[in-house]
Design goal:
The structure holds 2 protein chains of 2 kinds. Chain A is an all-beta fold. Chain A has no helices and 11 strands. In chain A, the strands form 2 sheets. In chain A, strands 2, 4, 5, 6, 9, 10 and 11 form a 7-stranded mixed β-sheet that branches. A 4-stranded antiparallel β-sheet of chain A has the order 1-3-8-7, with no helix packed on it. Chain A starts with a strand and ends with a strand. Chain B is about 0% helix and about 50% strand. The chains are: A mainly beta, B mainly beta. The interface of A and B includes residues 2, 45 and 92 of A.
Chain lengths: ~120, ~120
């Protein structure tokens, strides 16, 4: 257990649905991240938040909308997704983003299937 | 841009034996960090080991050690006394010294430990 919890573990949604992924960390970290893990591809960084402020949006389509109400919680709101968005979505946290080489702590991910 | 290459999509090893996973990277920076992450079937990405580029000494964590060859831009992971619980995807990752959140991952190596 790394101290980062993601829910739900699995999610199946239609292209017209709206759903949200939730991430919570119990480590007292200040930075949180969303990564996308697709089959046969390296992990892709999507968003970064530091002290609740978004510091990185890696050219992610607007159908993915992140929300960070506080340093412990991170959401990813999904709407009108495409089948190619099916992937494992991983949340991670670190102490902050200011120091190089910091260790990331990951959750177990949400396996998303878009039908 | 930095790239990380893992040339072995799959490997297998007998329990109690030693196995080495390969990783090469490309960067023009002099200050950076390298990581090996493990992702077992539970999907939770777990940090195995971290190497700071300015340290010549190879990092070790119990049965896990690295062979860091800075000039060759090579960063291999050696697992000694392999255990069944070591079965997982192993990802090599790189980050610059100044901005820890921009982790660049390789595509991963699936390691299977056979009884």
């Amino acid at each position: 257990e790394t101290g980062v919890t993601q829910t739900p573990r699995h999610l199946v949604m239609g292209m017209t649905n709206k759903k949200s992924l939730k991430c919570e960390q119990h480590l007292g970290h200040n930075a949180m991240y969303w990564y996308k893990q697709s089959a046969k591809k390296p992990l892709e960084l999507m968003f970064v938040y530091n002290f609740k402020e978004q510091t990185e949006n890696n050219s992610v389509p607007s159908r993915f909308s992140p929300e960070c109400p506080n340093s412990s919680h991170l959401f990813l709101h999904l709407h009108t997704l495409q089948p190619e968005d099916s992937a494992l979505y991983l949340c991670a946290s670190s102490q902050d983003t200011g120091r190089g080489g910091e260790k990331l702590f990951f959750g177990s991910g949400t396996q998303l299937s878009v039908l | 841009a930095q790239t990380v290459t893992q040339s072995q999509p799959e490997m297998s090893v007998q329990e109690a034996e030693t196995v080495t996973l390969s990783c090469t990277y490309d960067t023009s920076e002099n200050n950076y960090y390298l990581f090996w992450y493990k992702q077992p079937p539970s999907r939770q990405m777990i940090l195995v080991i971290r190497q700071e580029a300015y340290k010549q000494q190879n990092a070790t964590e119990n049965r896990f050690s690295v062979n860091f060859q800075k000039a060759a831009k090579s960063f291999s992971l050696k697992i000694s006394d392999s255990q069944l619980g070591d079965t997982a995807m192993y990802f090599c990752a790189f980050t610059s010294g100044g901005s820890n959140y921009k982790l660049t991952f390789g595509k991963g190596t699936l390691l299977t430990v056979n009884p």
